Amino acid sequence: DVPYFLASGGGITFSGGEPLVWGEFLEGFIPQYCRGFSVDLETCLDAPRQRVEGLIPLVDQWCVDFKMADPEKHREYTGHTNDRILENLTLLADRVPERILITWPVIPGYNDTDENVTAMIDRLTRLGLKRIEVHPYRKVAEEKQRRTGKSPVEVPELSHSRREQLEQRLREAGFSLEVRTPPYGKEKCEYLKGLRRRLCRDHSLDVEILECPVTEGCIGTCPRCEYELDEIGKQLRRKENHV
User: Fold this and answer.
1) Could you give the CA distance from residue 88 to residue 48 in angstroms, rounded to a whole number?
2) Average pLDDT estimate for 143-154
3) Which of 56, 60, 90, 156 is a good FRET partner for 27, with 20 to 30 A between their CA atoms?
4) Count of other CB atoms within 10 angstroms of residue 56
5) From its phi and psi, is residue 2 left (phi > 0), alpha (psi between -120 and 50) or beta?
């Protein structure tokens, strides 16, 4: 995927599950294989302090999943208090506040209450953290559970009006609302195809970029798309070795 990074100015995001479970691996992997690219880490920070400390010099942006401000409510819904999360968030806020993006998964009926919003705003403001991204709850898990014969806990969709209310409260409290909207599905396929065409043009590569034969479901990883990327990578490496 390195050609994509070169063409788009993109980088590498470690998500999960919880990537801090593999903190020692990341401490070795990032310096060895991610040189020259920005590194994001999507985490809830529920990990030992030393794992966070070891990655501070290596991570360009911490996307911190922050669900609930109250420790006992956090225990009620997740089985654990958020004490360790808050300790690690305070550590990052002290060391690299400019690298923190709070990601708030809004789960209607659970953490979208006025009480929790007020407590979150107060906690984050005291830490000096003002960048936040709102993630409305997605019902994908419920559909998967039904298909496998399980009975899901049904959560209502976050209404458009309620989302606007929450976002307005954040703005009034001085927060900067950020939105990352990467393409998905065929839109992503077409975006990656455009990057491959740009690479061929900018580096004078002899790779024919064809229309994707997959009509639906391809996200740039069908055999034809993979073949084009592989050929681009081979030709780029040959040019680098020749130089």
Assistant:
1) 8
2) 86
3) 90
4) 13
5) alpha
